Amino acid sequence: CVQYARHSMRRRAWQEALPRWEVVRRRFEEHAVGWLGAAECLKEMGRHTEAEKLLTGACERLSANPWPFVELASLATSQGDFEVAADRWDAILHRFPTFEHASRMGAVAMQSAGRDARADDLLRVVVRQSPSDLNALLEYARSAHRRADWAGAAERWTLVRERFPDCAEARHREAEALAALDQRRGQC
Q1: Element housing 73 (H / E)
Q2: CA distances (Å), 32 to each of 22, 61, 116, 154, in order?
Q3: Using CA atoms, how far apart are residues 45 and 63, in angstroms rounded to an integer?
Q4: Residue-wise DSSP of 82-123
Q5: pLDDT for 112-153, tens place per residue?
Q6: pLDDT, tens only, 67-109
């Protein structure tokens, strides 16, 4: 059943895939795949209100599974409602505090909603959970750099450079942050 529904999705035949996913959802109610597939079809067809209603039902029915909650937050992001998306990611993180994907995506939503301090907190968690993840380290350093927190940026770029000595961005941005920090100190 799942492969039959996915076949339609691969062809982007959303009208065809939706009833197939509905069959999966009804036959296997306790599994997220049918709920998520149907919601994706609705989203792709521009039927966001129906997708949100379906995902809300999935969250209630499958409350121990983070993925319906993730898709609900992602739906808000796709609609450009970053405040709602940020709130939903925060709710996911309270419900599933060790779910690293939620920390990463939550940080993006927080930045989009202008909640830079919260985004930075989430990035700190990701870096702590995945200390050898270059992308996480880069975004953590970029976060301080964007805010012109030169002391924090310099420290974070140094961390990236030490863990990934071949990272040209880390060397370049560390130098920028140190120069800006020196300039600020010279003005005091």
Answers
A1: helix 66-78
A2: 12, 9, 32, 43
A3: 26
A4: HHHHHHHHHHHHHHSTT-HHHHHHHHHHHHHTT-HHHHHHHH
A5: 999 999 999 999 988 998 889 999 999 999 999 988 999 999
A6: 999 999 999 999 999 999 999 999 999 999 888 888 889 998 9
Residue type, 89: W
Sequence-separated contacts (24+) of 80-86 with Cβ below 8 Å: 82/109, 82/112, 82/113, 83/113, 85/109, 85/112, 85/113, 86/110, 86/112, 86/113, 86/115, 86/118
CB atoms within 10 A of CB 44: 15
Token pair 């149907």: residue = 38
**Nearest CA-CA partner of 71 in 10, 20, 115, 62:** 62
Cα(18)–Cα(34) distance, integer angstroms: 10
Q: Which tokens hold the place of 162?
A: 């030490």
Q: Is the pTM of this model over 0.90?
A: no
Among all chains, which residue has been given the structure tokens 């969250």? 59
